[in-house]
Sequence to fold (413 residues):
Amino acid sequence: MTLNVYAVATPFVIALALAEFAWCVARRNGYYSFQDSIASMGTAVMNQCVNVAVALMVLPLFTQLGQLAPWKLDVSSPLALVALFLGVDFLFYWFHRFGHRTNIGWAAHSPHHSTEELNYAVALRASVTQRLFSFLFYWPLVVVGFPPEAVLAMVAFHLVLQFIPHTRVIPKLPRWVESWLNTPSHHRVHHARNDAYIDKNYAGFLIIWDRMFGTYAEETEPCSYGLTTPPNTWDPTVLNFQTWGRLVGDAVATKSHWDRLRIWLMPTGWRPADLPPRSLGYWKQDGVEVKFSSTELPGIRGYLVFQLFASMPFMLLVSHHASPLTAWRKVALSLLLWAMATAWSGMLESKRWSLPLELGRVLAMGVAVTVWLMQAGAAPAMSALTAAWFLVSLTWLVVVFSGSPLALRGRGA
Fold:
């Protein structure tokens, strides 16, 4: 498969997100929180890198499974493409339901629900472990004869389509549309933590699956978004692995070998009987919704916005099929992007370690990417732009933030 759907769709996704953001700012509707959006976009950059790596790992497996197919389906036929799309949509429903109804599925999926907003930045906050589970649900399509490359491309296209319903801007549509399509109204219900909306509307494109299998709920009351037990942090590592950590901790702590094995596939929230109930937080205080916010480093917002836009070309160096970087360099750059998102979260929470981490990340990324591009024979403009970004970032960090008492002292460990 030479076409990377994620990379091709990136300009469309970014344009739609910027348009929604501009509309929300103009309307002053409060649908975007700066801190939440920066955390979501940092996670999105990391996830795009993982998407490509997982697809490359899964393709050989799908190719082997394809040899079991009794026939080969020609996806140049419109009818075959429609059948493939419907197959992906149907299997996505069950994958998504698995992600909410089992411990291991929720560990992989919950980072996407960890934000307390709903907008197009939120749509991009995906888990770095979820994609592997997602792909492993689509193997029946290969076994029945669809080409592995076509299946992976359709999965990617289907994922891009799911970006659209993640909005509060679009109101309820006419009933004849709401009856079959997974509209923004339906997906608002899915992201809500209201008691009436929990574990509803798993559909990707067609809401008919929820109607058929008893998981449909209509939007009838205002939605409150996020987890019933908020993570109360912007740290991407915590957001991605806190549920995994709880499961591993329970599996180690229990004395029952049987519980140690079955905990992963038990219903979400289940714990071994010999472990005490877990004391968790709640999203309401005295019956009122309370959203997480933090004290950020002073003057940090302009820098973070600049770095957010600057991170997009670096992300494409990892994810785009025409990237001049070798595989190991893409892995190294992905790790630097993870450090970037971590440093951003630390700046948003005024952590003492955030500025040293960001300074190290800028130094490593600026020098390494410039050298890699030169060695790969990339266009001189690419190396020049990377060097310019490096100098601006370094100057901004050293000159602007070195004089801030809070930046020097920090507020946390």
Observations:
- The radius of gyration is 22 Å.
- The chain has a mean pLDDT of 89.
- The longest strand covers residues 284-285.
- DSSP finds 18 helices and two strands in the chain.
